[in-house]
Amino acid sequence: VDFYIRLDQFEDAEKLLQSTIRQQPNNALSKAVLLTKLGDLYTVTSRYSRAEKTLNNALAIIEKTTDENSPEYINAMINFGILEMARGKFAQAEEIFDYVLNEIAPDEPAYISTLNNQGLVYKSLGQPERAEKIFHEIKSIDSVSIGTAHPDFAITLTNLGFVYTDEGKYIQAERVLTRALDIQKKNGESRTASYARKLNNLARVYRLSENIERAIPIHEQALEIFKKTLSENSADYATTLYNTAIAYWKVNRRAEAFKYLKKSASVRSSLLGKRHPKYAESIQKIAEYHWNEK
Fold first, then answer.
1. What is the pLDDT of residue 294?
2. How many CA atoms lie within 13 A of 179 on its CB side?
């Protein structure tokens, strides 16, 4: 399963997980572990309702068979935090990650990944100084523990690039994001969703620093990767459609921008519903296009 997920072969991973889950006794801890992994897969592929239901099923089994200090319980909570973060519920995610970080030791593998997620939450809550401090701490730990050529080191560099971008430190952001992409490429992961997300981050730096012509082809490259790895009905694909539209808008290529805006609105409506702020974001820009075309 982990092999399929690493290669973004999510359909194969899902089939294998479901088949293995069916073979487990109803209240077996092994079934809960597999359900947790399946819930995480649903989160990654933007099927949030399924993710929540699956994680709740996993947690129900875990609570019957073990206690709240068990690795299985902690892992399920981590995945709940990731789900809340994906749905934009950052305050809830912060609470969950705080709980996890207080329950596990700093030398446990889950500690660093949870700390990374907490840094992303702080970034999303408008607390870049706290986020940057966390990512620098993780960068120092990773450089010793796993080395600077490891894919996980690239994740930390990417997160640091997020913060630099939000702080307007575009030169520093470009440097760390380019380095992260290079690490992932050297590890044979240049056609994965993870690589495409890093491309999007770099394109965002170019958009915000008014280097739009460099941003557009990078967004287009990310779109092609997402289409092949996650499908056209994923949150990553919808976000990239919107960002590509904004890039075209900024260079006055409004017809191309409109095409991408319509697609982004359609996917966001399907995924998130018409009351979600992300759908409203797309619709507002579409209305602006129609107003300008009068």
1. 65
2. 19
For residues 61-83, one letter each, b for 16 or more C-beta atoms within 10 angstroms of the residue's C-beta and e for the rest, the string is: bbeebeeeeeebbbbbbbbbbbb
Cα separation, 186 vs 183, whole angstroms: 5
C-alpha span between 165 and 277 (Å, rounded): 22
Going by C-beta distance under 8 Å and a sequence separation of 6 or more, which residues neighbour residue 275?
A: none
Instruction: Report which DSSP code applies to 48.
Output: H
What's the rounded Cα separation, in Å, for the pair 240 and 268? 11
User: Is residue 29 over pLDDT 90?
Assistant: yes
- CA 224, distance to chain mean position in Å, is 17
Give the number of C-alpha atoms closer than 13 A to the C-alpha of residue 23, restricted to the C-beta side.
7
Measured CA distances, 228 to 193, 233, 236 (Å): 9, 11, 12
Residues 101-157: tens digit of each pLDDT: 999 998 888 999 999 999 999 999 999 999 999 999 999 999 998 999 999 899 999
Mean pLDDT within 166-179:
95
Token pair belonging to 202: 């770099």
Q: Which residues neighbour 265 within 8 Å (Cβ) at sequence distance 6 or greater? A: 279, 282, 283, 286
Give the DSSP letter string of 215-271.
HHHHHHHHHHHHHHHT-SSSHHHHHHHHHHHHHHHHTT-HHHHHHHHHHHHHHHHHH
| H helix and E strand count, the chain | 15, 0
Q: Which amino acid is at 65?
A: T
Average pLDDT over residues 47-72: 94
- pLDDT category of residue 48 using cuts at 50, 70 and 90: very high
Under a CB-based contact definition with an 8 Å cutoff, are residues 184 and 150 in contact?
no
Rounded-to-integer distance, Cα 167 and Cα 164, Å: 5
DSSP 294: -
Per-residue DSSP letter, 191: T
- For residues 225 and 191, is the Cβ–Cβ distance under 8 A? yes
